[in-house]
Specification:
three-stranded antiparallel sheet, rod-shaped
Amino acid sequence: MGAEPPSRLIFYYLYAIIIIDMQIRKQGLSRLRQKLAVFQHPAPEELGTFLSGHPLIKGTVYTLRRKCFKASCRCARGERHETVVLTASINGKTRLWTIPADRIKEIRQQAQNYRRFRQARACLVKEGAQRQAAMLRLIDAIEKACTVQP
């Protein structure tokens, strides 16, 4: 039981290096997997706007001011007629609807809900693209950590 042959010592050193490397990779791999799990589900606050159930109306509510061109009318003196309308583009055509006075507040709120919904959707799409890019970077790092050179 003398000294080990050099080839056997090299084998033990390489084996020790490989074991240590695998342990380091395993720890890093575990952290990468934990980070990846965070991306799995969107946070509830991200979906709040979509789950609220508020009624939505596509369009914009505004006050239309116009003249009737009657000589004796107040609009001839500069006081224009006001009508609150909802305007929306449907199938590429702009439509206008007159809103009854008792529903102005309600329809204005529904149009605002629609704008918030669309803004939240756009934000979610943008964040989704960023989240997907981050997930792909993590997946690539996991692949690199798991890949063993032949």
